[in-house]
Structures are given as C-alpha cells and as structure tokens.
Amino acid sequence: MKGKTILIALTMLVVGLLATACSQQADSTLAPATEAPVEPPKVKVSGSVTDGGQLYDKWWKVAGVDEPAEDHPLWATQDTNTRSGKDTWRCKECHGWDYMGAEGAYGSGSHFTDFAGVFDASGMSDGELLGWLDGSTTGDHDFSVMGEEALGSMVTFLQDGLVDLREYIDYDTKTPLEADANHGQELYDNTCTACHGLDGRSINFGGDDDPEYVGTIAIGNPWEFAHKVRAGQPGTDMPASIDSGWSMQDVMDVLAFSQSLPVEAPGAVSVVSRGGRLYDKWWKVTGVDEPTEDNPVWARQTTNTRSGKDTWRCKECHGWDYMGALGPYGSGSHFTGFPGVFFAQDKSLEDIVAQISGNVDPDHNFSAMGEAAMTDMATFIREGQIDMRDVVDYGSGIPVGGDGANGEELFTSTCVACHGEDGTMINFGSDDDPEFVGTIAIDNPWEFVHKVRAGQPGSRMPSAIDLGWDLQYLIDLLTFAQDLPVEAP
Ligand code: HEC
Ligand code: HEC
Ligand code: HEC
Ligand code: HEC
Hints:
This protein has 489 residues and is an all-alpha fold. It folds into four domains: 2-160, no CATH class; 173-258, Cytochrome c-like domain (Cytochrome Bc1 Complex, Chain D, domain 2, Orthogonal Bundle), CATH 1.10.760.10; 268-385, no CATH class; 404-481, Orthogonal Bundle (Cytochrome Bc1 Complex, Chain D, domain 2), CATH 1.10.760. Helix content is 40%, strand content 1%. The protein has helices spanning 2-27, 49-55, 59-63, 91-95, 126-133, 148-160, 181-191, 193-196, 214-220, 222-231, 241-244, 248-258, 268-278, 282-286, 314-318, 349-356, 371-384, 404-414, 416-419, 437-443, 445-454, 471-481, and strands at residues 169-170, 175-176. It has a two-stranded antiparallel sheet with strand order 1-2. A hairpin with a 4-residue loop joins strand 1 and strand 2. Helix 9 (214-220) packs across helix 10. The radius of gyration is 31 Å and the shape is elongated. Bound molecules: heme C (4 copies).
C-alpha cells in the first residue's frame, strides 16, 4: 500500500514537472520545428480493480473519508434527477450501473441526468483519467478527497474493470441474453446462501414495508446486480466475483437464477413452516435446552419404549401424518395409542395454545418452547396440516398418481445442492446402517412429506410450504425419491 502511495506521489510530481515543462513549451511556440515532439505525460498508477468497482458506488465508505454533505457542483447542470446530497456524488448516479450514462439504463426514468457514460474512457491513459478525477480537466469534476490510493484504484477499475453489459443483458426484458440458471443455482448455493439465505431473503436491503432482497435487485436492476456481484458491496464482506475468477457468463448464470427468487416478504406462511419444524424437535428450532426427563404423559402408555427427549416430540405421540394411533403409528414400535392432532385444526388458536401450554392437561405442557413458538405451533395445526391420505396410499406406502419426471426436476432444482444427484450425499443414519433421501421416502413417506413441507429443524433445508408447492408437487417428488438408492454408493 505504502509503495503504491509513494509511486502515485512520485508520478504526480512528474506530472507537475511535465506540466511546467509544457507551459514553458507553450511559451516558446516559435521554437525550431526540428525539436523533438513533447511526450505526453507518463503517469503510472496502480490499484485494485475491485476496490475501484466499490469506489464507483459510495466511495466515501470504501475510502473511509467523510461523506459529502452538499450536492455535487455538476448536479446543478441538470434538473431531471431530483436526488440530492451525497447520492449526487456516486459515480453510478451520473454514469450508470452499466457505465453508459444517458445512453444506457439511466437514459430514462427518475435517474435520468443526460450525463455521458464512462465506458469509452477505458482507453484513456492513467494521466488522462487522473486528470478527470482530480479536477484538473474540469474543475467541478473533482474527487480528490477520496485520496490518492483510492484514485489509483478508481483509474484501474475504469481501465480494466468495465464490461459492456449490452453484450450480456437484454435491456428491454432486463434478463440475461444467455444463461444457465441451474449452473447459477450451484454458484449461488456455494457462494451466496451463507449470507443471503437459500431464497435470498436473509438480508433485507430495503425497509419492513418495502423489502428488497437478492431477487428484487436481480429483477429490477440487473446492471446493479452484475456490478455488485463483480465488485462486491462497499462496507461488507460480500466477495467480489472478479477476485474469485468468475467469468461474465458465471455472473449471468447467477443473475438468471436470482431472478427466480422471491421478492415478497416471507409473511404468515413462514410462521406455518416454522410451526411444522416445531412439531419435530422444537428445542432445535427455538434454541432452548433440550428436555432430559421423559414427558409426564409418556407414563400413560407402555408400548413405545423410547425415553428422554424423544418423548417430547409432537410427532412421537401424534404421528408424522397427524393421525396418532389412527395412522401408521397405530402399530409397530412407535405405537402409543395416543390420538392425533389432525382434527384439532377446527379449534381456535387460543384453544390449541391452551392445550400445548398445559392449561387443559397440566402434564401436556410444552411452554418451555416460549409463547411465540406455541402460537406458531398452533398456527401450523390450524393452517399447515394436510390429509396425508391425499398423498400416500396407506396400505402400500406408494404415492397416489405421481409424475416421476416432474419429481426429478423438482429434486434437481431444490434438493441436489445439498443431498447430491442421487440423494446419498448426506447420511442421516450411521456408516453401518445408512439412511438417505431414498431410504426415508420408502420407509416413511409421511415423515418425508412432513419434512419436505416444513424443512428440517436446525438446517437450511428449504420448506415446500414457503416455496408455495402444491400437493401434486409433493406427490411427484415422493414418486421420484422412492426410486433413489438406499445403499451407500
Ligand atoms: C454529478 C455527476 C457526476 C458524478 C457524480 C461523476 N461524474 Fe464523471 N462526469 C460527469 C460529467 C458531466 C462528465 C463530462 C462528460 C462529458 O461531457 O464528456 C464526466 C466525465 C467523466 C469522465 C470522462 C469521460 C469521457 O469519456 O471523457 C470520467 C472518466 C468520469 N467522469 C469518471 C467519473 C468517476 C470515476 C466518478 C466517481 C468517482 C464520476 N465520474 C462521478 C458527471 C459526473
Ligand atoms: C459474506 C456475506 C455475503 C456474501 C457471501 C454475499 N453477500 Fe451480497 N451482500 C452482503 C451484505 C452485507 C450486503 C449489503 C446489505 C445492505 O446494504 O443492507 C449485500 C448486498 C448485496 C446486493 C446489493 C443490495 C443493494 O441493494 O445494495 C446484492 C445484489 C447481493 N448482495 C447479491 C449477492 C450475491 C448474488 C451473492 C453471491 C454471488 C452475494 N451477494 C454474496 C453480504 C454478502
Ligand atoms: C408424550 C405424548 C405427547 C406429546 C409428546 C405431545 N402430545 Fe399432544 N396430546 C397427547 C395426548 C395423550 C393428548 C390427548 C389427551 C390430553 O389432552 O392430554 C394430546 C392432545 C393434544 C391436542 C388436542 C387434540 C384434539 O384433537 O383436541 C393437541 C392440539 C396437541 N396434543 C398438540 C401437541 C403438540 C403441538 C405437541 C408438540 C409440541 C404435542 N401435542 C406433543 C400426547 C402428546
Ligand atoms: C440447504 C441444504 C438442503 C437442501 C437444499 C435440502 N436438504 Fe434435506 N436435509 C438437509 C440437512 C442438513 C438435513 C439433516 C441431516 C441430518 O439431520 O443428519 C436434511 C434432512 C432431510 C431429510 C430427513 C432425514 C431425516 O431422517 O431426518 C429428508 C427426507 C430430506 N432432507 C429431503 C430433502 C428433499 C426432498 C429436498 C428437496 C426438496 C431437500 N431435502 C433439500 C439439507 C438440505
């Protein structure tokens, strides 16, 4: 860093000297024509392309200098874009996310200023670009407050970082001209989910009432999306795809996938899926201590010999199909004789919460999960249960009328990233007794359907309820999953 600063300082000195030389030259215009022509100033800067890309946005955040308070002096030369203050200092506000200014995406709409782009400036020399940025070319176009190091990176970005987005994005439909969304999903899952979540909604860039997610930016402003994915986001750890060696095609693939992500706030519907996960190991969902003793109600039966925390899972007494002893838990090692909760869906939220909190039966007390969780749980019972008989034939355990080909598509787009092509990437069992997606689908289709709908407690597995899948999707997916291998590869 220091070396770079010195280099810039030195080169600026050279510019200064040369400028003096030039003015002297200008004074002696009558000098003999034989004299050698004056070399253009050879300014050399060095800097980081990705730093420069981030500076193109809110450069004060990257350079660590005070943010501008007044309007940019050139702002007054236009009156169509009515923003004010620091926004008027962002390069992108005048020159566009696509670097084309008024010739590009900012050629109309609320961002229109009629200012030119910077795309054609990529061929300029270091000295020419520095001249534009430090105000020596046009006094009002002065960004030298960002400091020499930042100016160096800004120049580097302008020379090496610009791309012609017209070659990649259809400006009318705002979609990539060519893209492989499946590949995009792979890249997204490996690179973006950690921060933005599987569906791009873990971080809200907007407000509560007007949320903006990855999907929102991808659909609304693919140019901004491309710029930020390439250069990273100022002031955050978001990686820059330029540094990861992604091609522009990779960026377009992620854009195509991101355009399929939801843009609506996850509303009541995700309370339902959370309730579904609470129905399983609720302590993993809420983060409270797991129970150690048997549930007091457990003593009312002797047929199911499990003990400890398992006796607190709703599913252990009420079944994966919500039918209790009327369903598959009517026999076998899980048999308790306890009733289901399916018909409780007709009760009021208050009545169900009263049941879960021990107000009806003091032994049936799950208040350790907390008030909010009990309400979510009750919401699932009222709104989230399905009649599993519409999905699975209880006699054979085979789904009713599924389309395996459609199921394979769903599996490829939604499950492969974590469970692998054939569902054996995660082993839920042990080395000696492995359990894969195929195993659960065949041995316990009710558990399969419940978990696919609600998601798996304590994991990032998506919820089909939140994805808006209907019953037929579940039937199709189950049909395909029952054909997956059950042996270790
Ligand atoms: C307030 C609006 C505004 C802002 C903010 C702004 N510029 Fe400019 N910029 C202009 C205008 C106007 C021109 C002159 C265009 C012309 O007439 O050729 C210009 C010219 C340029 C040029 C020369 C382009 C060419 O092809 O001759 C470069 C390079 C440039 N700006 C880079 C930047 C960078 C980098 C930033 C951010 C640090 C920035 N500008 C911020 C308005 C702005
Ligand atoms: C290390 C965490 C992290 C990773 C990984 C990450 N991001 Fe981000 N991203 C952020 C943060 C933090 C923000 C800024 C949020 C804010 O400004 O409110 C952000 C902002 C964004 C924005 C701009 C939102 C806006 O309006 O300013 C987009 C688009 C985006 N990310 C997409 C992606 C994509 C696509 C990937 C994967 C290629 C990715 N991010 C990877 C943390 C990350
Ligand atoms: C140890 C076994 C057991 C566990 C675990 C269990 N229940 Fe129950 N549940 C029962 C029994 C037995 C009844 C009926 C008798 C009673 O009310 O105590 C019942 C009744 C209910 C009812 C009323 C059903 C109706 O039709 O009126 C609801 C609702 C309910 N349980 C929800 C849950 C929820 C939600 C969980 C998980 C947080 C859960 N139960 C965990 C044994 C259990
Ligand atoms: C983000 C990663 C991820 C995705 C995507 C994902 N899962 Fe999972 N899934 C997991 C994890 C982690 C587990 C828990 C493994 C464990 O408990 O050992 C799991 C558990 C399961 C289980 C239950 C295993 C058990 O016995 O508890 C099933 C069945 C399952 N997944 C099926 C699917 C299906 C079908 C899809 C696609 C619709 C899917 N998963 C998508 C990560 C994922």
